[in-house]
Amino acid sequence: MELSLEESFGILFIVAIIAWYVYDKYVQREHQLLVNYPIIGRLRYLLEEVREPFRQYFGDEKFYESKDKLDWVYKAARDLPNYASFSPAQPLPEPKFMIRHSNIVLNDNEVENDFEVTFGEKRKKPYTSKSIIARSAMSDGSISPEGTRAFVQGSYIGKFPINSGEGGVTSNFFVTHENYDSSYMTIVDSSSLNKKIKRAVKFLFNGAIAADVYRKLVFKNDPEAETYILDMKKEQFYRPNWDGPLEAFPKTVPADMPDVVFQISSGLYGTRDKSGKFDPNRYQKVMSFCQMTEIKIAQGAKQTGGKLTGPKVTPAIAYYRNVEAYKDVFSPNRFPYANTIEELFDFIGTLQELSGKPVGMKIVISDMQNIEPYAKEIKRRVDAGIDAYPDYITLDSGSGGSATAPLEMMERVGLNVRDSVYLVDKVLSDYGIRDKIKIVASGKILTPDDIIIVMSLGADFLQIARGFMMSAGCIRARYCSGTTGRQCPVGLATQDKKKRRKYFVFRHANYVANYHKNLLKNVKGLLAIMGLKNIKQLDKNKLLFLDKDSRVHDDIDEVFRRKLNLVKNKGEVNEFR
């Protein structure tokens, strides 16, 4: 008797289920659950697998203040109207800061567009940012090459600074730089036949596939092929020639590059010699393309050195960082020139002298004892007429960390950014040196109200990571580190070629620029209802504080006095938790 196609498939399905049942119950000895619940027990692993990637689609947001804030970021990136009806889907929890509004509000066009911030006024080459917002540190390596290019192009379009991250200024930071020459760039051209093949592939498919085919034709199996940027107009590849003479490098930052903040970590990547020591000559070359320097002492909850796992250390990343490919790159916990605060400041002075540009440091603080020693040393140097001290201090929040932060440190090490900003502003003011140092805030700043509150508490400038990540397509799947065996599903935070090469660089570059544009636009809207014409008019008197019992406090100094001086005021703290 001949079986129909449907019957054949049915029998095969039943046989497969029986075989699967037998395997789970009698053969495999890896999962105890499957022995007792063959087949159906695998649903647990399926649900566990999809939990993180699908988490953002459910309204109960627990890590951020509310899902409404996340929706704001995604809409702002796409330049969509950002209004809500009736009420927030998930109101902000108490306690919370409130913004004082004015009886006589302003129209948006009465608020000034002046968002400039100047760093290192005393340096030979001070830096004036056109925006109060920068994209925070994200290393090329932790971020895919395509992701880095999207951020760089978005920064250039949006006219806001971008922090290089500890991976240094890689070739991908030069993606907008078209007016280069062979004096400081290595240029690789190709045959007319290869160029014709590239054009044909682009005509039949798209530019991304054409670029991959062309790169393969030109470089064959060269492991460093990805360290070159493709100039689509000239149809040639280029990358900085870091071995070239210092004299050949630009004397001023090229106008067709974004404003880059060069971050140096304990690994000294991008400014180290073959033995891993600081290379002054290489540093000066890098600073030909950067506006200022940030020394990373700490980041988020990660008081350890930076961690880039082996799968992310591609030959290109190994080239950039001067390390071995496919091996874990774990930086030392302590910055090599920061065995004491005095040594750190002397090194900062060395960088200021070498570059003539502002130099700052990135720290995380837990209490006043973390910031007072810095303040004392700055005060001593100011009084002695010594200029070797940081031009700015970046305060990262202790409420999170990068994709490779130790879990045991998250939520346990460091104050949140609002507490940190208030405390550092107070300590610097108490020592009479507040006007010497810019305060940069970083940590869970997503929306315009976050900006208003943090700047009211004392910040001069902001660095945003999470918001920019989401604007660039991040769905918060939390697969960034690559240690789980899974990769970033959108291709933004992975070195997996199949995933990252499908990433829409130009589209996300515009999303990144839109996010920044709408942040400033809506900051202006908040300033208008506060009756303020300029962002510099913000101070803590523009805020109120609502405690967990909905009681309103209008003395912000008193709020923080009770909140931060826990030992002296144990009985006065609970109402603010």
TrEMBL record:
Short name of any one Pfam family annotated for the protein: Glu_synthase
Domain of life, per lineage: Bacteria
One biological process term in Gene Ontology: glutamate biosynthetic process
Stretches assigned to the Glutamate synthase domain: 117-532
Gene Ontology MF terms: glutamate synthase activity
Family: Belongs to the glutamate synthase family.
Protein name listed in UniProt: FMN-binding glutamate synthase family protein
Organism (species): Arcobacter caeni
